[in-house]
From TrEMBL:
Annotated Gene3D superfamilies: 3.30.530.20
Source organism (scientific name): Undibacterium pigrum
Name of the protein this chain belongs to: Polyketide cyclase/dehydrase/lipid transport protein
InterPro entries with a match to the protein in the record: Polyketide_cyclase/dehydratase, START-like_dom_sf
């Protein structure tokens, strides 16, 4: 009986600990590129261009892609269905301020459901441009629990670093 009470108290304490974790998250990476915003922005603002630099495009070479809405800019939509690692989801450009800012809503359907926001900011600094990519959103109980065992910042941040580096390599060659 005492053992059951101790286990119950530990379980309640663990649940309370998980529940008190932050209610939202933000992951952000930046990289300086020897290019002007006018060279960089079109590669972000058109989902068709993401195949060239996005690290998630390399996860599943057989990914099924679909595009709808305008070719680029606000209301452009990109949906994907891939293997177990890539999953399934949809992105839509919500705001596009040419050469400065892009805001995208991303919905994940598989392997888990989530809705987050992605932002790109381009800050011209003389002959270079600082490109910042961020993803943020709210954390439900399950994502708080997962956060105890998996670092979203490490997993997603690493992919942001890879993508920004690939983007840099493309724009600095052109």
């Amino acid at each position: 009986m005492i053992l059951a009470a101790i286990i119950l108290l530990l379980l309640i304490a663990f649940i309370l600990f998980v529940a008190t974790r932050p209610d939202d998250f933000r992951i952000e990476r930046s990289l300086s590129m020897q290019a002007r915003p006018e060279q960089i922005f079109p590669l972000l603002n058109d989902f068709h261009e993401w195949e060239a630099w996005s690290p998630w495009e390399k996860v599943d070479p057989a990914v099924r892609r679909s595009y709808s809405g305008p070719q680029h800019g606000q209301a452009a939509v990109y949906a994907w269905a891939g293997n177990k690692e890539l999953g399934e989801g949809r992105m839509e450009i919500l705001e596009s301020q040419p050469f400065n800012y892009l805001r995208i809503q991303i919905n994940f359907y598989k392997p888990f459901a989530a809705q987050n926001t992605i932002e790109f900011r381009l800050d011209e600094q003389g002959p270079t441009t600082l490109v910042s990519q961020a993803m943020f959103g709210s954390c439900n109980f399950m994502s708080k629990l997962m956060g105890l065992f998996f670092s979203m910042d490490n997993m997603v941040g690493k992919k942001f670093d890879e993508g920004l580096l690939d983007l840099k390599n493309i724009v600095e060659k052109s």
